[in-house]
Each structure stands twice: as structure tokens, then as C-alpha cells.
Amino acid sequence: MITKHLVAVWNPSYGGDIMEAHIRILRDRAQRFRSKMDDEEEVYVWWGKIRSAHRQRPLPHLPEVLALEEQLGSAEGSAEREVHLYLTDYRSLYVAHVGEVTADDPREDEGDDGSHIPEIYRGKEIHCDCWFRLWDIRRIVSDDTLAVIEELTKLRNTAYGDMPVSIYGGMVDLPLIVTRPDGARYFETDARDLLTDGNYWVEFDAEHSGIAATERDLREHSFGDEAWFQLDPATRTFVATAEKLFRDHKSDIAFDFSPVLLDLAKAFEVQTNILLKRALATVPHNQRLVNIDGRSVDVGSGGPFMLAQLAQIIGESQGINDILKRKLSASAQWFTASLPPILKELGAHRNPAAHSSRAEKEVVHRLRNRALGVGCEGDLVKLAKVRVG
């Protein structure tokens, strides 16, 4: 069954920073959970579909929007499907994990103290067609309209013959009901815990702010649009964070470059895990089993895997190696033969850096240059060009 998602636009004219207000509540709730002041089920925020003062008639497709409630998963992200609410102001783009869709107004719930509802909804003239309970919010694009346009084309508008979503004339009768052919998942707990050290994505993004200009520069001058947009949002965040840190401190002889190395390593981990999982998605279970650390693991559904494990799975398991050669595009030879040594070397340097050992600038400089393509075609650029099918 095809999972349906939603696309909505937030309107700054209602006052204040609407997105920041929702993020602030989620971060506060996450902190209360970590401080053992609340249960994890209390980590959520309500997003209301504000009805325009100029629209008198009911939302024409409201029954279809509310019907998405039937396909929702759990707050822990363990369900087979995730329902996403994509939120944009055309300059930035976020994706939220939807936990509930309802026409009932949470502002009228006597059992709710209102702390899950941003102040913007308290205005007397604010009426909402429906409400979405959001478990978490991830930033996909920050301050880059071209990147927003490109990301939205990955979604298909069910009201327009499954054509790609376009901000030029296509953003009517919001929220749009869309599908996503690539089946991208953003909120799997295991992947999140590995990449964010157990934090929510809304917390992770707050710690990786201020990188929008670096992301645009990498897209325009290192990767190119096509390769950059093929990278997962988390991969792009890690690459841009590493590069900003490197640029900011490249002349500082006392700086420990371990964080740069760690973020580059995570960029490779994210992208390689995604490609491996996609390539093996339709392969029979018995052909996906690999012995890892003495255990038989289904590498198509397990993971995410660390660098050394990925190097082993791709480079040393002949069965998986042969499958990848058949499943991947023209870059299959590079992925199956050249990538494993790259992952292994990066992991060998990353492991000491992750355990308080200082990473020397010369080592990080060399790995950074090879990853981004300073004086060569970058390994991350090559990885971005790998396609399944």
C-alpha cells in the first residue's frame, strides 16, 4: 500500500516565527523527558492548518486529509510506514513526523494544559481546519529556495495526476496530499540514535545551525546541483558542518580537528547505509545474510552499520558484492571495489578521534580534500552519483 503524506506552507504574516515557535515547544518537551519530568509520549507539538480569513467554504479535501489517520504509525518510529508533513515557507523546508490527524480542536481539550500548543493559535480570529500532532521535526533545507524546489519535486501531488510538486501554481488547496516514490524514511529510531547520539532531530538541528551558506557554496562550487540533491539531508548536514568547522579553524594551530573528521565519517555512513538498504530491498532474505561480529545479520533490514561494518559487508561478502554489482548503476564498480578501502581508512582515523584522541590537521586536511574533491573528483561526489537500478 502506498503511503500518503502532506505538504503545507506556513505564512509569516500571522506574526512571529511560526516554525521556531513549534520547534521551541518540541525542544522543551524533549528536555523535560530527558530530565525525567515527563514521559516520552509527552514529546509532541500541535500544528494547526490555519484557515484563511478569505476562505468561507470548507476545505474541499478535508475528508481525505483526515483519512490519513488510518495509516499512522507509532511515536517511536517502529511502524512499517511513516506519515510526513512537509512544511515550507519556500525558502526553507522541514519534514515532521505525524502522530495524529484530527478535526478536533486541542485548544478545547479540558485535559490539555495548552503547553503543546504555540501561542500563535491563541488569537481569537485563528480558526483551523484540522490539527496534526507532531512527534519530531527535521530540517531538510535552510534558506535556499532552489533546494526547496528540488526537494519538493521528489513528492507526487495526488490531486494533479501524481505530477511532481511545484511551488509555481501547484500550492493550492493546502495541505497537499502527496506520495513519495523513493519511500524515504526520516524518523527510524535506530538511525536517529546512531546519528544524533540519542537526541531528537529537532535537537540535532539546533546544534547544527548556521550552515546554510556553506551548504549553498558546496552545492554550487563542489558537488553541483544534481549530485548535491542526491545526498540525504542528514548527509548534507554532516558535510556542511564539517566544512564550516574546517574553514573557520583552518588557521588555528591549536584547534582539535576531531569534530571535522567525525562529521565527515557520519556523512559517509549515512549515505552508504541508505544505498545499501535500497539496493537490497527486493533481494530475498536468505541472500542478504552476512556474518557480522559472530552474528548472522540481514543487512537489508538491519543496521544502520558503522564504517568498518560497511566496508566488510560491501567489500568482503562476495554474495552481497555480486548483488550490488547487478543492482547499482554505472558506479557499481567504484562502490563495490573502491569505496570499502575508503570507509576502512576513514573508520581507522575516526575511532581514535571519537575516544578523545586528537585528530591532527594534516590528516583531516587530506581526508577532507579527498572527500570533497580538492584537486580531484571527490569521494562524496562519487558516492552521490551512485544510483540503485
Note down, in words, how this protein is organized.
With 389 residues, the protein is α+β, with helices and mostly antiparallel strands. It folds into 2 domains: 4-179, no CATH class; 208-384, no CATH class. It contains 14 helices and 10 strands. Strands 2-5-4-3-1-8-6-7 form an 8-stranded mixed beta sheet. A hairpin with a 2-residue loop joins β9 (289-292) and β10 (295-298). α8 runs antiparallel to α9, α10 (307-315) packs antiparallel against α12 and α11 packs across α12 (332-354). The longest helix has 23 residues, at 258-280. It is globular, with a radius of gyration of 22 Å.
| Average pLDDT over all residues | 90
* Amino-to-carboxy terminus distance: 21 Å
What composes the largest sheet?
A: 8 strands, mixed
Helix content: 40-55%
- The number of helices is 14
In short:
With 389 residues, the chain is an alpha+beta fold.
